[in-house]
Amino acid sequence: MSSVLFDRVAHRYDSTRGYPEVVAQQLGEKIDRIAQGNAQTRFFEAGVGTGRFALPLAERGRQYTGIDISLKMLGLLESKLDATSWQKEEFSWGSLPDEDAGSSPEVRRFVHPEKQATMRLVISDITALPFHDNSFDAVLAVHVFHLVPNWQKGLEEILRVLRPGGVLVRCWDENWEEAWKPGLGDIRKRWTQIVHELGGSTTHPGTSDQVVTDWLQGRGLKTEQVDSVAFKQEMTPRAIFTGLEQRIWTSTLVVPDDLFAASIQRLREWMDEQYGSSIDDPYIQTQRVLINATRIPE
What we know:
The protein contains ten helices and nine strands. It has helices spanning 10-17, 21-34, 54-58, 71-82, 151-161, 186-197, 209-218, 237-245, 250-253, 257-274, and strands at residues 42-46, 63-68, 87-89, 107-112, 117-123, 136-142, 162-173, 223-235, 283-295. A hairpin with a 4-residue loop joins strand 4 and strand 5. Helix 6 crosses helix 10. It is globular. It starts with 9 loop residues before the first helix and ends with a strand. The mean pLDDT is 91.
């Protein structure tokens, strides 16, 4: 199974997965502090997407590199850069000392003269990074490893390009489904049951954050939660159903189209029986983003 592409949901990604601006800025500030960021710090993000972490960090005046396999996700990030004060730079791959000239990935380069920041976007898979050893001071990976079948190779590549003394920062939402109002979490659970009843599977191609933590600790690397950011948002049963119907979650992307359509029809019927006129009743959900750090020995 190949890595999951987000091309099909790229146009909805920010509206469904993005953080409020104040939360994004808080996350950027905290991650920058963990990385002991300064003007010389070389940041790298595996799975940069539409830039929900990249922009708050890079705009602090940092040297930022992001990779992704989704052209549409990177295209949205590029549009954000074009719409602000970032300027394009044009020079060939291999021009910078950390770029492996034996590779020839597609690259897009930007600079922010006022903030003395740089942004380099590269089309690349996490399992074959086109950079030399010890190229970066800090690596960021958010909601990535559950998408990568050969996640161990991806981690090995990250450790290869991360310099001794550097830090790997991972973020994920804490038990977000369990934080739902009692009963609402059953919507996704019921959909999963329906898919299995129809003979399908919602299993991700990669692995969980806990397995990644165990793998790193098994390598003798100290990894621990070092910070978090909490915020509140309004949710309704209909919004949860719509998120499934529009396939904004990874589990929906691995289900074949015909089976997925059948599962949604069954779920719609179940929703009518379960929620009826209360389908639009709002509730406030508290979300918490955990920040985990793994420091590489000198």
